[in-house]
Amino acid sequence: MYDEQGHPLHLIGVAFDITERKRMEETLRASETKLRRLVDANIVGIIVTTLSGQILEANDTFLSLVGYTREELMTGKLSWRTITPPEYQQISDQVVQELRQYGVCQPIEKAYINKEGKHVSVLLAAARLDETTDYNICFILDMTEQKDLEKQRELLIGVISHELRTPLTAIKGNLQLAQRRFQRYIQNSQASSSLDSSSIAKIEVSLEQALRQIRVQERLINDLLESTRIEDGTLAINRQPCDLLRIINETVDDMRFIRPTQALLVEVPTQETIQINADPGRIGQVLANYIMNAFKYSPEDRPVRIGVTIEEQEVRVWVQDQGPGIPPEVQPHVWDRFYRIPGNKAHNGESKSFGLGLHICRVLIAEHGGQVGVESELGKGSTFWFSLPR
Ligand code: ADP
């Protein structure tokens, strides 16, 4: 058979075969060089293993991670099975199964036992080199530092929640009891006659001051715990059908109790309820945070206004104060973790803060599918708002 130009067709076929094979060989060589470069770069630990356990090749990063020498590797006796702690054997079996079935495995967290017998935490991802052999390439990332940090953080959270919060709750309970008893005591005419009115006032003031300090500490501890929960992804939100107006009224009542001296003006629609699907505790927490900030940063003789705007798709709650206002260039940052506007002073000894409150608010509202924002002009006060889908 001949082609249109008169060349025998089978020869062209052979020529094609040869060039194709050459190209394939070149591609293979190129990818082998690339792979070798990756292994030698020692960015992550890399090993070539069999599915049954033998480690055929390893780069320096892996060897230093497990503490074995290249000579020990060359004996051919190093096996990932024997350096895997018993509690990780099962997950390793799953990896082998995944590799057999799909050729790749999802990254897993596991550990190796190094030569000194200590556990090293790693993140491992693997792929089969080809379908005909049982050779695999595994990428191993040292996670020791991260694990140490995680342990320290867990320890810290434990200390915060137990060692700090528990005694604080007890102190607060006792103080509140003392305050109530004292009020009952001074209502009794006999007692008030034996104590002069200035002594009574002094005791009342110190009890109130102690309680205020405790509330500040309680808020700081809760902020820290909430922020670690956000980082861990363990923040709990329990959405349910609820009435936004009721949440606003209850929060405002609590706030009036905390700061009876500052006027809180509520402007809500005349309707009886605003039904939303949300976690009432969390929405109350966000509103309380906005109001507390308004208290903290605006003069006590200026009222704080709270309102609701209902739109077709969403409902917006806002808190307006007549405080110092926030410069436009820092407005986006007030939602950042640990951000505080330099020189922005709070009153009443409430300046102790971590700059976490608004960050937590933003996360909580985002979890509800809503948005947060602030409108503010320097010297004219600020309006913080959040919206929720209806
Ligand atoms: P903090 O616990 O420090 O108050 P927030 O996250 O609640 O942290 O607020 C971040 C910063 O934003 C505050 O430190 C303060 O400087 C500023 N800020 C918050 N609310 C107001 C407000 N109503 N008026 C002026 N500045 C505010």
Task: Round the Cα radius of gyration to an integer and report it.
Answer: 33 Å
Oligomer: single chain
The share of residues in extended strands comes to 15-25%
* Separation, N- and C-terminal Cα atoms: 76 Å
* Largest β sheet strand count, sense and barrel closure: 5 strands, antiparallel
- Poorly predicted ranges: 7-14
Kindly name the structural category. Answer: alpha+beta
Strand order across the biggest sheet? 2-1-5-4-3
Q: What is bound: which ligands? A: adenosine-5'-diphosphate
| Gross morphology | elongated
Element order, helices and strands? Answer: HEEHHHEEEHHHEHEEHEEHEE
Number of helices: 10
DSSP helix fraction: 40-55%
Q: Give the strand tally.
A: 12
Give a description of the structure.
This protein has helices at residues 9-41, 60-66, 70-74, 89-102, 144-187, 189-194, 197-232, 244-258, 280-297, 357-367, and strands spanning 45-50, 55-58, 108-113, 119-128, 135-142, 240-243, 264-267, 275-278, 304-310, 314-320, 371-377, 381-389. It is of the alpha+beta class. Helix 7 (197-232) packs across helix 10, helix 8 runs parallel beside helix 9 (280-297) and helix 9 packs antiparallel against helix 10 (357-367). The radius of gyration is 33 Å and the shape is elongated. The termini are far apart. Residues 7-14 have low confidence and may be disordered. Bound molecules: adenosine-5'-diphosphate. Residues 293-294, 297, 321, 323-324, 326, 334, 339-341, 344, 353-359, 382 line the site of adenosine-5'-diphosphate.
Which key terms come to mind for this protein?
390 residues, alpha+beta, five-stranded antiparallel beta sheet, five-stranded mixed beta sheet, 10 helices, 12 strands, 48% helix, binds adenosine-5'-diphosphate
